[in-house]
Design goal:
single chain, 171 residues, mainly alpha, 0% strand, globular
Length: 171
Protein backbone atom coordinates (compact mmCIF):
# COMPACT_ATOMS: atom_id res chain seq x y z
CA UNK A 1 0.00 0.00 0.00
CA UNK A 2 2.79 2.42 0.88
CA UNK A 3 4.66 1.64 -2.30
CA UNK A 4 1.50 2.28 -4.34
CA UNK A 5 1.03 5.68 -2.71
CA UNK A 6 4.69 6.50 -3.24
CA UNK A 7 4.39 5.56 -6.92
CA UNK A 8 1.26 7.68 -7.35
CA UNK A 9 3.00 10.62 -5.65
CA UNK A 10 6.02 10.25 -7.96
CA UNK A 11 3.80 10.12 -11.05
CA UNK A 12 1.96 13.21 -9.84
CA UNK A 13 5.22 15.09 -9.18
CA UNK A 14 6.54 14.21 -12.63
CA UNK A 15 3.24 15.34 -14.16
CA UNK A 16 3.60 18.64 -12.32
CA UNK A 17 7.13 19.11 -13.74
CA UNK A 18 6.01 18.22 -17.27
CA UNK A 19 3.03 20.57 -17.01
CA UNK A 20 5.34 23.39 -15.89
CA UNK A 21 7.60 22.68 -18.87
CA UNK A 22 4.64 22.87 -21.27
CA UNK A 23 3.36 26.08 -19.66
CA UNK A 24 6.79 27.71 -19.85
CA UNK A 25 7.24 26.71 -23.50
CA UNK A 26 3.75 27.88 -24.43
CA UNK A 27 4.31 31.28 -22.81
CA UNK A 28 7.56 31.95 -24.62
CA UNK A 29 7.44 35.60 -25.62
CA UNK A 30 8.65 35.04 -29.18
CA UNK A 31 5.56 32.94 -29.96
CA UNK A 32 3.40 36.00 -29.40
CA UNK A 33 5.68 38.87 -30.45
CA UNK A 34 7.58 37.39 -33.40
CA UNK A 35 5.20 34.68 -34.60
CA UNK A 36 1.93 36.52 -34.02
CA UNK A 37 0.14 34.03 -31.76
CA UNK A 38 -2.77 35.85 -30.12
CA UNK A 39 -2.04 36.77 -26.50
CA UNK A 40 -5.58 35.92 -25.41
CA UNK A 41 -7.02 33.12 -23.29
CA UNK A 42 -7.86 31.27 -26.51
CA UNK A 43 -4.39 31.77 -27.98
CA UNK A 44 -2.74 30.63 -24.77
CA UNK A 45 -5.03 27.58 -24.67
CA UNK A 46 -4.01 26.66 -28.22
CA UNK A 47 -0.30 26.95 -27.51
CA UNK A 48 -0.54 25.13 -24.19
CA UNK A 49 -2.49 22.23 -25.68
CA UNK A 50 -0.03 22.08 -28.54
CA UNK A 51 2.98 21.78 -26.22
CA UNK A 52 1.16 19.44 -23.86
CA UNK A 53 0.26 17.14 -26.72
CA UNK A 54 3.85 17.08 -27.93
CA UNK A 55 4.83 15.81 -24.48
CA UNK A 56 1.97 13.32 -24.32
CA UNK A 57 2.80 11.95 -27.77
CA UNK A 58 6.43 11.54 -26.74
CA UNK A 59 5.37 9.80 -23.51
CA UNK A 60 3.20 7.38 -25.49
CA UNK A 61 6.35 6.13 -27.20
CA UNK A 62 7.49 4.82 -23.80
CA UNK A 63 4.77 2.16 -23.65
CA UNK A 64 2.37 1.55 -20.78
CA UNK A 65 4.36 3.57 -18.24
CA UNK A 66 4.46 6.47 -20.66
CA UNK A 67 0.70 6.25 -21.15
CA UNK A 68 0.20 6.35 -17.38
CA UNK A 69 2.46 9.39 -17.12
CA UNK A 70 0.68 11.03 -20.06
CA UNK A 71 -2.68 10.51 -18.38
CA UNK A 72 -1.33 12.08 -15.17
CA UNK A 73 -0.10 15.04 -17.22
CA UNK A 74 -3.51 15.40 -18.86
CA UNK A 75 -5.22 15.23 -15.44
CA UNK A 76 -2.90 17.97 -14.17
CA UNK A 77 -3.78 20.08 -17.20
CA UNK A 78 -7.51 19.70 -16.50
CA UNK A 79 -7.01 20.66 -12.86
CA UNK A 80 -5.06 23.73 -13.94
CA UNK A 81 -7.69 24.63 -16.52
CA UNK A 82 -10.48 24.30 -13.97
CA UNK A 83 -8.63 26.59 -11.56
CA UNK A 84 -7.88 29.16 -14.26
CA UNK A 85 -11.51 29.27 -15.35
CA UNK A 86 -12.67 29.76 -11.78
CA UNK A 87 -10.19 32.63 -11.41
CA UNK A 88 -11.73 34.19 -14.54
CA UNK A 89 -15.09 34.09 -12.79
CA UNK A 90 -16.74 31.09 -14.45
CA UNK A 91 -19.54 29.95 -12.16
CA UNK A 92 -20.09 26.40 -10.94
CA UNK A 93 -23.33 26.29 -12.90
CA UNK A 94 -21.66 26.85 -16.28
CA UNK A 95 -18.38 25.07 -15.47
CA UNK A 96 -19.49 21.63 -16.69
CA UNK A 97 -20.65 23.00 -20.04
CA UNK A 98 -17.46 24.99 -20.57
CA UNK A 99 -15.23 22.10 -19.56
CA UNK A 100 -17.08 19.86 -22.00
CA UNK A 101 -16.47 22.34 -24.83
CA UNK A 102 -12.82 22.70 -23.90
CA UNK A 103 -12.46 18.93 -23.65
CA UNK A 104 -13.88 18.52 -27.14
CA UNK A 105 -11.52 21.20 -28.41
CA UNK A 106 -8.58 19.54 -26.66
CA UNK A 107 -9.28 16.10 -28.11
CA UNK A 108 -9.70 17.57 -31.58
CA UNK A 109 -6.33 19.29 -31.25
CA UNK A 110 -4.70 16.13 -29.89
CA UNK A 111 -5.96 14.09 -32.84
CA UNK A 112 -4.95 16.73 -35.37
CA UNK A 113 -1.45 17.06 -33.96
CA UNK A 114 -0.98 13.28 -33.73
CA UNK A 115 -1.95 12.92 -37.39
CA UNK A 116 0.32 15.80 -38.42
CA UNK A 117 3.28 14.34 -36.51
CA UNK A 118 2.80 11.01 -38.26
CA UNK A 119 3.26 12.79 -41.60
CA UNK A 120 6.68 14.22 -40.70
CA UNK A 121 9.08 15.01 -42.28
CA UNK A 122 6.37 16.35 -44.62
CA UNK A 123 5.10 19.42 -42.76
CA UNK A 124 2.06 20.13 -44.92
CA UNK A 125 -0.41 18.68 -42.41
CA UNK A 126 1.30 20.40 -39.48
CA UNK A 127 1.23 23.76 -41.25
CA UNK A 128 -2.48 23.31 -41.99
CA UNK A 129 -3.09 22.30 -38.37
CA UNK A 130 -1.31 25.44 -37.13
CA UNK A 131 -3.24 27.61 -39.58
CA UNK A 132 -6.55 26.19 -38.27
CA UNK A 133 -5.75 26.49 -34.59
CA UNK A 134 -3.82 29.78 -34.69
CA UNK A 135 -5.28 31.56 -37.74
CA UNK A 136 -3.79 34.99 -37.00
CA UNK A 137 -0.27 33.68 -36.35
CA UNK A 138 2.54 32.92 -38.78
CA UNK A 139 1.50 29.27 -39.09
CA UNK A 140 4.53 28.27 -41.16
CA UNK A 141 6.98 29.54 -38.57
CA UNK A 142 4.90 28.09 -35.73
CA UNK A 143 4.96 24.72 -37.52
CA UNK A 144 8.75 25.03 -37.89
CA UNK A 145 8.99 25.69 -34.15
CA UNK A 146 6.84 22.65 -33.39
CA UNK A 147 8.97 20.44 -35.63
CA UNK A 148 12.11 21.67 -33.86
CA UNK A 149 10.56 20.97 -30.46
CA UNK A 150 9.40 17.53 -31.58
CA UNK A 151 12.89 16.68 -32.84
CA UNK A 152 14.34 17.84 -29.51
CA UNK A 153 11.87 15.62 -27.64
CA UNK A 154 12.66 12.56 -29.74
CA UNK A 155 16.37 13.02 -29.05
CA UNK A 156 15.90 13.07 -25.26
CA UNK A 157 16.14 9.63 -23.65
CA UNK A 158 12.75 8.25 -22.65
CA UNK A 159 13.76 7.90 -19.01
CA UNK A 160 14.48 11.65 -18.86
CA UNK A 161 11.18 12.54 -20.54
CA UNK A 162 9.33 10.25 -18.13
CA UNK A 163 11.05 11.95 -15.19
CA UNK A 164 10.16 15.41 -16.44
CA UNK A 165 13.89 16.08 -16.71
CA UNK A 166 14.07 18.03 -19.95
CA UNK A 167 14.50 21.52 -21.22
CA UNK A 168 13.14 22.73 -24.51
CA UNK A 169 15.70 24.94 -26.15
CA UNK A 170 14.41 28.19 -27.53
CA UNK A 171 14.48 27.96 -31.29
Amino acid sequence: MWSRRKREREISQRAERLHAIAVTASRERSLYVELGAPDTPEGRFELLTLHLNLLIERLRAEGREGEIQGQALFDRFLSHLDGAMREMGVSDISMARRMKRLGEAYYGRAKGLREALMELPDTTALRAFCARTLPTADSERIADRIVARWVQLTEIPGVDVMAGDLVWKTT
